[in-house]
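If you are new to this repository, start here. Below is one unmodified record pulled from the training split, so you can see the exact layout before writing a loader.
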Amino acid sequence: MPDQALTGPPLRVLVADDNPVVRAGLTALLGGHPDIEVVAAAADGEEALASATRLTPDVVLLDVRMPGTDGLTALPELARLAPVMMLTYSREPEVVAEALRRGASGYLVHGEFTAAELITAVRALRHGRPTVMNSLGVSYEPNESTSHLQPFMAQSSKARPVHAAGLHRRVPNQPDFGLSSREVEVMDLIAAGMNNRQIAATCFISEKTVKNHINRIFAKLHSSSRSEAIAHWLGTTHEGWSR
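And here is the target side for that same chain:
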């Protein structure tokens, strides 16, 4: 049976972030999946609004703090055009709550999710399933009359669980080459076509750390090049993903 995520037209995504490295990393990561297409990358809220109005994306990934028109200012109008996932460094509970009040359909904090969780969250918005990191001090409930979330300050720092199913399905008993969870994430990004700089930006680690991960990955995969590692990875641990 074909994966439901890969049926139908590609999910059209607009990325809005003032950091060009983050924009490039997200574009490369998302564009590495055949069911996702990045239709525009904006540097601020005003540019995001113009692009969303012109291109009518299915999902918007939006930073909170940007020069000029920031994410929170642009959010209400953007949310009328498409589901908006806040993707930002801002984890203050009051900022999260305000974003949800203004119409955000989800909220993820850089450094607190994996590449697989991001892809899953973006896909989930197509089906109206919101995602809020469970480490944030804000809980949420769906509004019965709209697709937006109704936030409230939680008594503790735990919110309801995030939708975080794995991106790739492993066949039982298949070898994972002994890769750590971070090495799996880096290897997936390599397979998506990212260079070291883009991987560093996406994982929020230094390029030196990326190189260290890659050296360990190559050793575990018994590979001497990216192409050889990708062939081993896709052919053995991610059966069917490259089709």
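Two things worth knowing about this chain: The first strand starts at residue 11 and ends at 16. The mean pLDDT is 76.
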